[in-house]
């Protein structure tokens, strides 16, 4: 879609939804496959790659960053995914929307 390849139809559908929200001005700065290094005690342990990162309109002209992953119920149970999600949240305080 628009030059992007997605890991699943579900992820492709979400991209289409997000591009519509972008056109409506409900979100801004849509980025795909954004890598977040996970640093513990000054050492980069691994990286977490989010499907989408964007700014979501909160109030008026105020926006907040959203980190979003499109996962099936099966993939959400993957131990590596769960560990990286917990590490990112613990190391940065950022939450992941699924």
Key structural traits:
98 residues; alpha+beta; 3 helices
What does this structure look like?
By secondary structure, the chain is an alpha+beta fold. Helix content is 35%, strand content 41%. It has three helices and four strands.
Topology:
Blueprint: H1 9-24, E1 27-40, E2 43-59, E3 62-68, H2 73-76, H3 79-92, E4 96-97
Parallel strand pairs: 3-4
Antiparallel strand pairs: 1-2, 2-3
Can you describe this structure in just a few lines?
Helices cover 35% and strands 41% of the residues.
SSE order: HEEEHHE
Distance between the termini: 21 Å
Number of helices: 3
Low-confidence stretches: none
**Share in β-strands:** 35-45%
Mean pLDDT: 91
Percent of residues in helices:
25-40%
Secondary structure class reads alpha+beta
Radius of gyration: 14 Å
Shape: globular
Strand order of the largest sheet: 1-2-3-4
Annotation, overall tally of beta strands: 4
Largest sheet geometry? 4 strands, mixed
């Amino acid at each position: 879609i628009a030059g992007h390849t997605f890991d699943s139809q579900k992820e492709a559908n979400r991209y289409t939804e997000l591009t519509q929200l972008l056109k409506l001005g409900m979100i801004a700065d849509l980025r795909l496959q954004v890598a977040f290094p996970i640093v513990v005690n000054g050492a980069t342990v691994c990286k977490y790659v989010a499907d989408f990162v964007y700014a979501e309109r909160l109030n008026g002209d105020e926006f907040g960053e959203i980190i979003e992953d499109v996962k099936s119920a099966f993939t959400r149970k993957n131990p590596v995914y769960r560990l990286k999600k917990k590490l990112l949240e613990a190391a940065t305080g950022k939450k992941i929307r699924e």
